[in-house]
Amino acid sequence: MTSPVSSAVSSPSHVAPSHVVVIGAGIVGTATAYELALRGVSVTLVERREGAGLETSRANGGQLSACEVAPWAGPEVPGLILKWFGRADAPFRLRPKPDPEQWLWLMRFLRRCRASARAERVLPNLELALLTRARLDAYRENFAADGRTLDMDHAQNGILRVFRERHGLEEAREGIGRMTQAGVEQRELSPAECVELEPALASSFQKDEIAGGIYCPSDGMGDAHLFSRELAAAAERLGVRFRASEEVEAIEVHDGKTTGVRLADELVAADAVVVAAGPMTARLLRPLGLRLPIYPVKGYSVTLPLEDAEAAAPNVSITDESRKVVVSRLGNRLRAAGQAEIGGYDLTLEMPRARSVFQALTGLMPQMGALEPRAEYWCGLRPMSPDGSPIIGELASRNRTIRGLYVNSGHGTLGWTMGAGSAASLADLICGSAPQLDLTPFSHKRFSL
Ligand SMILES: Cc1cc2nc3c(=O)[nH]c(=O)nc-3n(C[C@H](O)[C@H](O)[C@H](O)COP(=O)(O)OP(=O)(O)OC[C@H]3O[C@@H](n4cnc5c(N)ncnc54)[C@H](O)[C@@H]3O)c2cc1C
After folding, report:
1. Which of 99, 66, 64, 94 is closest to 81 using CA atoms?
2. Which end of the chain has fewer surrounding CB within 10 Å, N or C?
3. What was the pLDDT predicted at 262?
4. How confident is the model at residue 79 (pLDDT cuts 50, 70, 90)?
5. How far apart are the first and last CA of the chain?
6. Nearest CA to 67 among 313, 314, 365, 317?
7. Mean pLDDT of the chain
8. Are the beta carbons of 133 and 66 closer than 8 angstroms?
């Protein structure tokens, strides 16, 4: 038996839709379909791939990181892009394209590279991350009530941010009080305390490569691909029609109202449509005259089956702040992820860039070098908004609202951390209940479309 949603009061004037199409079965779309089904809504989930979680949600860094919700755009970023310009192993890379979409997005991103702009996004993102934690707990309870386990290699062993240089640690120290005040405990650790907490860092400690760390015990890690698959199956058990291997070609709108979506040879009627198409979101909406600033930022990961090396692997999730790589233990696998390339929609896996993630991992934990023959490399496109927060809500252009057209996308570097919370909030909005958190900071209206 699935437990009901803790819900808020419905507005008497709001008519809940009779049928909703959700486009995209990544973390965000599957969670949205599941949350709507929990509220008794009839849902069709359409996914162009053969199953759930096969694009950006396939092999991300695994971190559920309420402690690290600050956007990427910040005062140091323009300098870093210039510093690394042209280097194949650069953690940040700009590949200019003759594409106005890219330049417009970049201009918006650069405008957000101010300390004050970064600071103003931290609390809204944190609220979403904390709601996500609560929703993941609720999903686990729902599975347990059905006699099942939500199998996503989840572990809540905390996240340790490791700094090689003192100045990085000193800057980050300033955020500890703010986060603790907001309800996310963090504490600073000496180099010796870092290695005591996570013995897999012993080699870096012995080489004097750790200046210190900041530990957030309540954070966790898990496999977003397994999660998407499990949740899509749970949504189907609640009556959601999951149409895999079907691509939405267009969103149908008549008289200012969404009427459904067009597939290759069929119209699927709906009185509400949720676009959760990850990096493809902006392209799907453009024919409707909506120019959402969501642009792909490519990243890489490497997954290492641990087999007999489990004892040498970390149990705490690590962010190496100097090498710009995150490391998560997913059951009997180790995953490292990093790299940010602003270079369009190309998904070619470039081995020098993929290997640089592996090298960053072995720089931090040389004992993992022996696993190289088992390495599985992957790359994916983060759906990024310029300000590092997702866009959640009903859509309107400068001239008109399109009733029944909703978006849940642009989670960028934090889709796993914020996805379930954004799904629950949007489901509340669609059903006419007061969302569990204020969605105003996530409205598309903060950008002019
Ligand atoms: C290297 C890397 C590391 C990361 N690490 C972390 C991390 O540690 N923690 C964290 O919180 N986040 C992390 N992220 C970010 C996170 O993975 C993303 O924000 C998240 O996966 C986005 O999910 P999504 O559902 O929006 O997009 P997707 O997973 O891409 O899902 C969108 C789906 O829509 C489908 N689709 C698109 N167009 C259509 C169409 N026309 N018709 C039908 N279906 C369509 C696609 O096939 C896809 O399955 C990382 C990302 C990368 C790349």
Report:
1. 94
2. N
3. 98
4. confident
5. 43
6. 317
7. 94
8. yes
Quote the ligand 1 centre to 419 CA distance (angstroms).
10
CA distance readout (Å), 231 to 29, 57, 150, 198, 351 = 10, 13, 8, 32, 32
Give the closest residue (by CA) to ligand 1 atom 15: 413
Where do we find the tokens 């998904």?
347
For residue 204, the CA-to-ligand 1 centroid distance in Å is 32
Contacts of residue 401, Cβ cutoff 8 Å, sequence gap at least 6 = 256, 394, 395
| Residue 24 Cβ < 6 Å to ligand 1 | yes
| pTM more than 0.90 | yes
- 78, HSE (Cβ side, Cα atoms, 13 Å): 11
Best residue among 46, 325, 382, 391 to mutate for probing ligand 1's pocket (most ligand atoms within 8 Å of CB) is: 382
Could you read off the pLDDT of 366-403 as tens digits, one per residue?
999 999 999 999 999 999 999 999 999 999 766 677 89
Closest CA to 63 of 367, 430, 415, 444: 415
Ligand 1 atom 5 nearest Cα: 61
Cα 381 to middle of ligand 1, angstroms: 7
**What's 10's DSSP letter?**
B
For residue range 187-226, list pLDDT tens digits in order: 999 999 999 999 999 999 999 999 999 999 999 999 999 9
Report how far Cα 367 is from the mean position of its chain's Cα atoms.
29
Residue at token pair 């005259």: 289
Task: Give residue limits of the domains in the chain.
Answer: 72-98+154-219+295-384
- Write the single-letter amino acid at 254: H
Token digits of residue 207: 């080489």
CATH for the stretch 72-98+154-219+295-384: 3.30.9.10
Residue with tokens 């997702």: 390
Apex CA 429: angle with CA 11 and CA 182, to 5°? 110
Q: How far is CA 122 from CA 130, 159, 216, 441, in A?
A: 12, 18, 16, 11
